[in-house]
Amino acid sequence: MNELEESNKLQLDFAKIAKIAENCKDVIPVAVQDADTKEVILVAYTNELAFKKTLKEKVLVLWSTSRNTLWEKGKTSGETFALVDAFVNCEQNSLVYTVRAKRGKICHTNNQDGTPRNCYYRKINPDTGELEFIDE
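and the corresponding structure tokens:
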């Protein structure tokens, strides 16, 4: 079991932005939203190269800040995403992409029964600080 992804223990990475600033100076955040359900799938980062590739190929391409490389979401699993729309905020320092899963699966994680789920599958209990699985 991947403790970070599969447990009910809250382990927020408050140093994430500082790590990105050290290694990936030219990125902006991208909120990725399912075009049909309007669910937020994930928040990731893009740089100029990933942004241009996304627009040109009309597929979700991001910049992996942990691997410092281009990341076509789902390419290794076959669960890729078609770009539907791209939006920019007023300060032009963040984006929202609406996408459609080409095969239907959104996240690399699954429910206990093996069915796919989105990346926001745990809710923080404000009383205990523990995570509650919302889709199982």
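(Above: one complete record from the training split.) The first helix runs from residue 3 to 6.
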